[in-house]
Amino acid sequence: MEIPYTVQPRPDTGIYNAKLGIWLFLASEVMLFGGLFSAYVLLRVGADSGYWPHGWLDVRFGTLNTILLALSAITTLLAWVACKVGHYAKFKFFHACTIALALTFLCVKMYEYHDKWIHYEIKLNNGTFADGHLVEKSDDFDLAKKTGTITLHGRIVSDETLLYDLRSQKNIEQKETVVSAADISSMENYGPWHNTFLAIYFTLTGLHALHILGGTLVIGYLWGPGSKMWKTDHERFTNRIEVSGLFWHFVDLVWIFLFPVLYLT
Q1: What is the 3 state secondary structure string of 84-151?
Q2: 254 and 207 assigned to the same domain
Q3: Could you say which of 138, 168, 188 is where a domain stops?
Q4: Which of 120, 139, 193, 226 sits in a 20 to 30 Å window from 163, CA-based?
Q5: Does residue 105 lie within any of the structural domains?
Q6: What's the pLDDT band for 249 if we cut at 50, 70, 90?
Q7: Which domain holds residue 161?
């Protein structure tokens, strides 16, 4: 059975089925991310004064990822143009560039996640706070048994609020600090459970990263096995490239909102 309107536009909408489908799907995606952005705003407005993080994310990595996605938006568009004009080699090149840029984006994001995973806030028995990145734990370190030591590259502060607004503090001195397990009241890394900001940060960027991964798999398929349709049904294949490009541009647009909201405010 032949599926209608895979190439020709529908008389009722003026576009072919796949394009109509992707626009409906993207509408649901807008509602998904819109709800999460709204949650971010409400959580931030409702946060206690002095306890909303500022400067916790490295703007350099956020800027790099913004550039990577902006370039990938250009290359995926050029891949579609190459399809339209019938240049197979250029299509393969530009789609390969899109895949490489997407994978680089994911690598940068994984590095950022790892950086948070090894970052610890330790509350000490004397009421001060040790904060920094894990350097090493002694072989006998056991928080429950209060044995061993942990070494952080960071600082010790007497007021926890000093750990939240890093942008207002200049020339923060950090050094290796050895903390005994016997002196630790509690310790926790900067995972999504650490506070509200990190919970919404990991949720938003994690969901976005899954969209990047999914889009990369689709583009990779069209670049590889799926490209056989170039010869058998070129116009329908070009439409597939356009539809995947629309999804990719949406993912890029989401990051354009994520970057200033999470990294610059």
Answers
A1: HHCCHHHHHHHHHHHHHHHHHHHHHHHHHHHHHHCEEEEEECCCCEEEEEEEEECCCCECCCCECEEE
A2: yes
A3: 188
A4: 139
A5: yes
A6: very high
A7: 120-188
Same domain, 97 and 210: yes
255/126 same-domain check: no
Q: Which of 188, 209, 238 is the last residue of a domain?
A: 188
Q: What's the CATH number where 235 sits? A: 1.20.120.80
132 contacts 120 by C-beta, under 8 angstroms: yes
Q: Read off the pLDDT of residues 69-119 as tens digits, 9 standing for 90 and up.
A: 999 999 999 999 999 999 999 999 999 999 999 999 999 999 999 999 999
Contacts 24+ apart (CB under 8 A), 109-118: 109/65, 109/205, 109/209, 111/61, 112/57, 112/58, 112/61, 113/202, 115/58, 116/189, 116/190, 116/191, 116/198, 117/189, 117/190, 117/191, 118/189
- How far is Cα 86 from Cα 69, in angstroms, rounded to an integer? 25
Predicted TM-score (pTM) of this structure: 0.92
pLDDT digit string (tens) for 180-225? 999 999 999 999 999 999 999 999 999 999 999 999 999 999 999 9
Residue 109 sits in the same domain as residue 40: yes
Query: What's the total number of domains in the chain?
Result: 2
Q: E strands, the chain, where?
A: 119-124, 129-137, 149-157, 175-180, 184-189
